[in-house]
Amino acid sequence: MTLSKNAARMLVFTGITLVVFNVIAFVVPFAKSAVFWVSYGFGMLAIIMQLGVMKLAFDGAKDARSRFYGFPIARIGVIYGICQLLLSVAAMAIGQYIPAWIPVVVFILLFAAAAFGLIGADAVRDEVQRQDENIVKDVRRMRDLQSRMNMLISQSDASGELKAELEKLAESIKYSDPVSGSATEQMEDELNFNMEDLQKAIVDGDENAALALCKKTGGILAERNRLCKLNKNVK
């Protein structure tokens, strides 16, 4: 199994941190009291935990946007790791002067705060990604309508009043609110039906019907935009 470059970097970083922490812990003549071993244990946990945090933050990230969402999770893990290592070394240094229950309580509270932060950040990431997916899905209908309208104009040999009306309708669609919703669903269905009828009228060369459909579609579009604006004001 081949490791990615980022995974390899993380393993190297974790390995170096592990070595440095163990050198400090066992080369510096700290008193090997209960406080020392508690501090050492939590320090090792914080280092090894970085691998799991980075996996949670970036595993499955397919693009720059999804990796960006993982940075808050990674930042919490790194902050926890740094704070825990500093506190572990400080507790080792004064281990002979304090009871073991003090670092135990402090380290457990720090670990709990980090765990809650990671859970919260992961939940926020999931919600933001879900909203992004919904927005992409919600704008699809209007983008499709705009594409169909542009194609219709490019393929039509209309001139005069009909050409002006088609271009006006295309501009209205282009600058309409792109986000769909349950409140606008029926109107968007009507817009699609009208677009089909408009295409048929142009193919058949029925200019009067095409003009009428342009004005009717423009009216429905204006009402849809008004409804979109009202819904935003209510929210």
Description of the structure:
- The structure is a single chain.
- The protein has 235 residues and is mainly alpha-helical.
- The chain has two domains: 5-137; 140-234.
- 83% of the residues lie in helices and 0% in strands.
- It is built from eight helices and no strands.
- The protein has helices spanning 5-27, 34-58, 64-93, 101-138, 140-155, 160-174, 185-204, 207-234.
- α2 packs parallel to α4 (101-138).
- The longest helix is centred in the middle third of the chain and has 38 residues, at 101-138.
- It is rod-shaped, with a radius of gyration of 31 Å.
- The mean pLDDT is 83.
Question: Which parts are unreliable, with pLDDT below 50 for 5 consecutive residues or more?
Answer: none
> Overall pLDDT, averaged?
83
Overall form? rod-shaped
Separate helix tally:
8
Task: Label the structural class.
Answer: mainly alpha
Task: Outline the biggest β-sheet.
Answer: none
SSE map:
Layout: H1 5-27, H2 34-58, H3 64-93, H4 101-138, H5 140-155, H6 160-174, H7 185-204, H8 207-234
Which short descriptors sum up this protein?
mainly alpha; 2 domains; 8 helices; about 85% helix; rod-shaped
Short description:
The chain has 235 residues and is mostly helical. The protein has 8 helices and no strands.
